[in-house]
Input
Amino acid sequence: MSLLIDGLQYANWSEKIFRQMRKGGVDAVHVTITYHETFRETVLNIERWNRWFELHPDLIFQGRNAADVALARETGRTAIFFGSQNPSCIEDDIGLVEVLHTLGLRFMQLTYNNQSLLASGCYEAEDTGLTRMGRAIVAEMNRVGLVVDMSHSGERSTMDAIEHSARPITITHANPSSWHPALRNKSDWLLRALGESGGMLGLSAYPHHLKDGSACTLQSWCDMVARAVDLVGPTGVGIGTDLCQDQPDSIVEWMRVGRWTKTIDYGEGSADAPGFPAMPAWFHDNRDFGRIRDGLLASGMDATTIGGVMGGNWHAFFDKSFGPQVATSVRERRAAE
Output
């Protein structure tokens, strides 16, 4: 059986969920450990994870490189890779990029819906692209091996990141907007550029990103996977479910409101239903990845492509992304050609 990797989850973590990961055969998961938290608050979250690793060493351990995915498979455990959905954790200090990478952070979004010090979010009326600080932070992330994630960013900012980054970037949890026109989903031209640069797209199962929402069928989702493969390429597509299992509805408000407003920001979805939407019938938790694999097989996708989507492509991306490296940017490489 091919590797199984989920490119993004933000669950209300518990032993129950860790055991479900094992039941589902999940080899590795990129987990959100911080949103709006400061550096010190992020460290407290890492302390909490360290305690889970101590309490459940037979189920999970902290992943730091691609070899840890193979170790997870060999030892029957799940490797946990840390990520941030907002640059709040580095505050305004470029030195904290390396500090957090040392502590295990492997992904960081440059924005979460709004304008940040680094780039514009997908909900801003005007996308001004990467800021001066944003370009400097991207270079530092490239240097240490912290992956640039543009899942909640605007289109121009995402394209800027692709062009300025010396290493391939990722969109860990989004879908093609040509399949479903959510603000968080990405245009075809942008996904083609992502693929041409060697980047990775993680496809989401979160209802606000799906055609027909919670009623989205597995067949429809698998058709979308095939479209994404055509756009990005067969080695650039994986899964990033955006699973928020067992989270209370109050967490949605915190995710969207953070510290930046005193009023409710409903963001994605209806103001009449500000909580978490019901997941589609074919994916409720980590035990359901087999349904996705079966759906892709039934849709006619070949076994090699399915293996890549289910985890092989993420594994290859981890291998080239998490260590220090000096390289030229896409823009510099194009100028040299």
Residues 303-321 form the longest helix (19 residues).
